[in-house]
Amino acid sequence: MDSSTNPNDGKTAHPKSSWVTPADRERYRVFRLPAVRIDTKAKITTETRRQADLLFPELSKAGVFKTYKLHDKKKFFYALVHAAKLAKYRAGPVMFTRNERHPSWSVISQQVIDAAVEVGLFFEYRSEPQSKHWSRLVPTEKLVAFSSIDPWEVEPNTMTSFVYLRKRGGKGEELPFDRDDPVPSEVQRILGQVNTCNRRYHITCLRYDEAEGKIAKKDRMVIRPVHYALFSDNWDTHGRIYTGKYGHQGLRALQRQTIKFNDMPSIEYDYGGMHPRLLYHLRGIDYQGDPYLLWGERTSTSMRTLAKVFVNALINAKTPQAAISACNQKMSVWNKKGSRKKGKAREEAYRLRHACQETGVKFADMLPLTLYRHAAIRDDFGCDRGVELMRIDSQLALSILDHFSSRGIPCLSCHDSFTVPEFLGSELELYMSLVYRDKMGFSPIVK
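Now predict its structure.
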């Protein structure tokens, strides 16, 4: 095989270089995709074991495969197939190391991987010498012979409790509580009903190609949202609703617009400027403007982007200085642990950096203007009001979810936005307004 067709020959080149081959571009793309590690301690489903058992005899056809320690090799192959199915779902590769000094490396694992590549279950893209990257395996259709994987076939959902009380500021420490208490009991009832209803529908969306930075228009993925509420310290703070790792909250806004319920298109509505508006309404002020137009009519799209981030940071932070620091951290391409951000977080950082460069505005410079524009609620900034406001928006969300799910209609919550089948868009818009007016005594902006 010559270098023009072998993806392992040559070094990784930038795809815009005029001399690179299609194989070079594919190699560059593969190393940019989010990768899955092989977890030898993962719980393997019966279906995955069955599939691996059917494929395992194929490995004996490889010249590198030896017949000793077959039990250990099959056990590792289960974990490899499990990782391959997760990689297929996420449209990325499996990552592994060829470094014999690394704790995760073994003769058995390397032999199984080499055999799987040789018999055509994976394409292999080896990392370059001295590279920090691990090598990559891309599953072939011979291994994963279906285009759309239900993630629950790989990692079944086991969540039955949908209410959690955790210590704020800790490391996710769970606090004990009486499940018969009226608040958690009612939240558990509603979210159990919501999850049961949504489970009856085949919910999909278009995949986002991380390497290309755009929606893959013909590649749909299954999503499995499991709504649960997370409270902080007590039942009066936080309480926001999340949807688990296979839910829709991790999707980009563009992806959420492509959600379908049993092939029915969907529509999403959200509350505009919710938390700033809530602060006004809690003070009895009927504020109907856009809270992020800090420069009035001169506010450009980039200025509004910065203002939205900064105003909400001021509401959630304990001090104005902490808000400025949080915004600067959000704009950094490095996270607090010192590694580079990935996916949505990285794109958000680039978006904010571009907005700052385009406008010349710095977050620290926005504080006086924000306090001037929102003088009526300036005492609420830098006072950690976010956890109280989240409790209000979670109460609104629970009412909306209960309204639709009690009638067998799927509804997805993303904090202050909601997605339902498209033909029910008008009903969703109306009910969001009714629930808010009943709670706050003022009309919201629903868009």
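The chain has 14 helices and 13 strands.
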